[in-house]
Amino acid sequence: MQTVTLNTGAPMPILGFGVFQIDDAATERAVTDALAAGYRLIDTAAAYRNEAAVGRAIAASGIPREELFITTKLWVQDPGEDNTLRAFDASAELLGLEYLDLYLIHQPFGDYYAQWRAMQQLHHEGRARAIGVSNFPADRLVDLIVHNEITPAVNQIETHPFLQQTAYQARMADLGVQIQSWGPFAEGRNNLFTDPTLTAVAEQHGRTVAQVVLRWLTQRGVVVIPKSVRPERMVENLDVLDFALNEDQMARIAALDLGVSQFFDHRDPDMVRALGSRRIG
Ligand code: NDP
C-alpha cells in the first residue's frame, strides 16, 4: 500500500476504510470484510458508536498490530484535559488497543484548546502516535498551530469532486498538515456516480466512477477513507492505485469543483449549536 509521511515521520496508508453510518451490529462484519480485502487503515469515531465492533473485528483478524493504522475521534462533549484523557481511555478500551495511530478532534467547536493540550500529552506518552483535527477551517487550524506545541498531523475534511479543497490542501502542505478526505463520493450526492465527466473518464480507463474519484484524490496526495458495507465495492475501492489519470482528465475533473459543501456548512451558527450540543451517550 502506498503511504504518505506524516509530520511525525510515520507512514500512513493513502487509502483506508471509513465506518460512519454503519451501525454497531453491521460494523464487525464490514470491518472483517474490509480487513480481508486488504484495508489496513480503519477510520472510526466515538460519535459513530461502533468502536467496540471495530475492536472485535481487529482482534478476530489476527493481523499484527503494527500492520494496522487505526484512527478514532474525540467528540465535542469531552472538553477539558481530564475529560479528553478519559474519552481517549474509553475509546482505546472499546477498540481493545494500547495505542492509536491517529487521534483526531472531531469538530472545531467547544474547548478544543484544552482537548489539544491533552492530546499533546497522549502523543508524548506514545498512546496517540499521531494527533490531528477534523473539519477545521484554515483560520482555526492556523490559530491552533500558532498557540500550541504540536502541529496537527492531519486535518480530515470534506473533499470530493464538488468540493475539491485545492487551495486549502496547498496551505496545509505548507503548514505540514496532511489532508484527508471524508466523503470522497459525497455519499453519492449531486449524482456523483452518474456524473457525465466522471463517467467519460471512467470509460477511458475501463474503470468505475468510484475508482476514478479515488484515483483522482490519491493522485493529488489526498488520503481517502471510502465507506461501503458491500465486499465487492470494498475490493473495487481498494483497486485504484495501478492506473493514472492524465493531465487532461485531471483538468476536466478539476472543472467540477463547486466550492461548496454537499452536506452543511460547519460555520453555520445553527449547525455550530446543533453539533456543539450533541451528546453521544
Ligand atoms: P462516502 O463518500 O465514502 O460514500 C459512501 C456511500 O457510497 C455509501 O452509500 C456506499 O454505499 C456508497 N459506495 C461506496 N462505494 C461505492 C462504489 N464503489 N460504487 C457505488 N457506491 C459506493 O461517504 P462517508 O460519509 O461514509 O465518508 C467516508 C468516511 O469518511 C466515513 O465512513 C467516515 O469514516 C469519514 N467521515 C468523517 C466525517 C468527519 O466529520 N470527520 C464526516 C463524514 C465521514 P454502500 O455502503 O451500500 O456500498
CATH architectural name:
Alpha-Beta Barrel
State the end-to-end CA separation: 36 Å
Strands of the widest sheet, in order across it, are 3-4-5-6-7-8-9-10
- Share of helix among residues? 40-55%
SSE order in H/E notation? EEEHEHEHEHEHEHEHHEHHH
How many strand units?
10
Radius of gyration: 18 Å
Uncertain parts:
none
Mean pLDDT comes to 97
Small molecules in complex = NADPH dihydro-nicotinamide-adenine-dinucleotide phosphate
Number of domains: 1
Strand content: 5-15%
What is the CATH C-level name? Alpha Beta
What are the SSEs and their pairings?
Elements: E1 3-5, E2 11-13, E3 17-18, H1 24-37, E4 41-43, H2 51-61, E5 69-74, H3 81-95, E6 102-105, H4 112-124, E7 131-134, H5 138-146, E8 154-158, H6 166-175, E9 178-182, H7 196-205, H8 209-219, E10 223-224, H9 231-238, H10 247-254, H11 269-276
Parallel strand pairs: 3-4, 4-5, 5-6, 6-7, 7-8, 8-9, 9-10
Antiparallel strand pairs: 1-2
Helix pairs in contact: 1-2, 1-9, 2-3, 3-4, 7-8
Describe this structure in words.
By secondary structure, the protein is α/β, with parallel strands linked by helices. It has a single domain, classed as TIM Barrel (Alpha-Beta Barrel). The chain contains eleven helices and ten strands. It has helices at about 25-35, 50-60, 80-95, 110-125, 140-145, 165-175, 195-205, 210-220, 230-240, 245-255, 270-275; strands at about 5, 10-15, 15-20, 40-45, 70-75, 100-105, 130-135, 155-160, 180, 225. Strands 3-4-5-6-7-8-9-10 form an eight-stranded parallel sheet, with helices on one face. Helix 2 links the parallel strand 4 and strand 5. Helix 7 (about 195-205) packs across helix 8 (about 210-220). The chain is globular. The relative contact order is 0.14. NADPH dihydro-nicotinamide-adenine-dinucleotide phosphate (NDP) binds near residues 19, 184, 187 and 236.
